[in-house]
Amino acid sequence: MTTTQATERFIIPIGPQHPALKEPGHFEFSVEGEIVTNATVRLGYAHRGIEKGTESRNWTQNMYLLERICGICSHIHSTAYAIGVEQLAEVEVPPRAQAIREIVAELERIHSHMLWLGVAAHDAGFDTLFMYTWRDRETVMDILEALSGNRVHYSANVLGGVKFNLTEETAETILKGLEFLEERTHHYRRVVENDAFFLKRTRGVGMMTREDALRLGVVGPTARASGVDRDLRNDAPYIAYNEFPVQLITLTTGDLEARFLVRIDELLDCYRVIKEIIAKLPDGPLTVARMPRKLKAGEVISRVEAPRGELFYYIRSTGGESPDRIKVRTPTLCNMGSVVTQAVGHNLADVPMILVGIDPCFSCNDRAIRIEGSINRRHDHLWSWSDLRQYGIDFYRRQLDYSGEINT
Amino acid sequence: MNPQSFLELIESNQYEWANTTNRPGQNRFDIDVADGRLLDAVAAVTGLCDCYLVAITGLDPGVESGQLWVLYHFAHRAEVATLRIILPREMPIVPTISHRLPSASIFEQELGEVLGVLFVEPGTDDPVYHSRLFIADDWPEDVYPLRKDFHGLSEPA
What we know:
The complex is a heterodimer.
Chain A (H helix, E strand, L loop, with lengths): L1 H6 L1 E6 L11 E7 L2 E8 L7 H5 L4 H9 L6 H16 L5 H29 L3 H22 L8 E2 L2 E2 L5 H27 L1 H7 L7 H7 L3 H5 L7 H4 L20 H24 L15 E12 L2 E12 L4 E5 L1 H13 L7 H7 L4 H4 L19 H15 L9
Antiparallel strand pairs in A: 1-2, 2-3, 4-5, 6-7, 7-8
Helix pairs in contact in A: 3-4, 4-5, 5-6, 5-12, 5-14, 6-7, 7-12
Chain B lengths: L4 H8 L5 E8 L2 E6 L4 H9 L5 E8 L7 E10 L2 E10 L4 E3 L8 H12 L2 E3 L37
Parallel strand pairs in B: 2-5, 6-7
Antiparallel strand pairs in B: 1-2, 3-4, 4-5
């Protein structure tokens, strides 16, 4: 009887909606007893038609569309796009704007890594760490709001530069916030390295050798935790990374603990580089004098280091106001394949941690297309641009009283 | 390895599978691959150094062209080499490179679903991918959203 149970194989479906992650993805794990013997993945539950959508929008509109691929790494998407378009337009962005782009990119990395740290702690059952990291993450969200007016979609970039300046007052706010975060991050590092119960969930779990990471095409902190020395901020410096370089952080152990430590050490380096930029911020304008509305024909490739790893944009223009094709390859797409490979041989209970170890982003991953219903029928899921615009006007009109003040 | 040497290595070879080459930027090198020689091209480029497949881009240059393009981007540090193959629009069949590069599998699957390129086992007509990874299960067959002649579904999927 016992023998029969041990050799019997079950397939356990998980998702698309499941408690391990707040985004949808479907996995099927074959298990023998508690041990995973095979795994498959089904993606696409957050498809929004963004790549197709870029073909019917002009170069400026696409900046805002592409920024909305992801709520966590919105700035790096718009930066990758802006770099490519500026290359096509043959304009040179002023140094001050490039430095501000790097500040926002590194603040975004802090936001992303701290969010991940909390989610990963939650999946490990360590909710105290989750609550502390998310409380402290508010500091960087407040900084981003002080800088840009927004907590999530900062809209820092415009084609040819940036939208806002860094004032002395905002710089003070950033430095004060970073001082607090640095102290907290050192504390998190001690917890992650020393808490005996937490180490049971991370040390030696989800092992991926350097050879496996290379074979599977893994990118970002997940790859660097397996000894892959790739970081586009060093390998192909863009915006201001030549003037304000970052430290390449790698570990060779290749387990979940290494993925925690690499990201935590990257946080510490983010604080360092932001402080350095603020201290040496170049003077000058925030944008180019003129950014052409129509671009010549051509194709460019833009590669940047998003918080989760290499983000790739291919942009093709046939000449005119809109792109012919924009291809986006996000880091999660590269890392997803490693999850099913790592899961095999582990306990089923380790799977949520292995999945979260790559810091997956399904919004980044799923972009292609899903269209339902006719755009003309009321109450359908798909609204036209004019429907949305009218809804916005009506919504805010309802919020206004006759004195013109917003009702709360 | 010298950071410049990946592209220099490619450039220094006279590949019989290369139709035309182009250097569109300091860190880029594009090669148009001859019909049926993709696997040779991938083997040659990946054999030069520890470069990696960054992405596969599918592209519809327009209905009137009668073509679909597939671009394989390989990177080493700052440098990117792109292998371009041109497929007939009516029968866009290409051998998978996932046996050599497992990371290609997810890129090929995405491209197959959104552009209608059929990836087959090398030397056969057997499709490699039989289920959908990205597009919804109820999405109609033979409708590929990234083709230029797709302007939306007239009926709900």
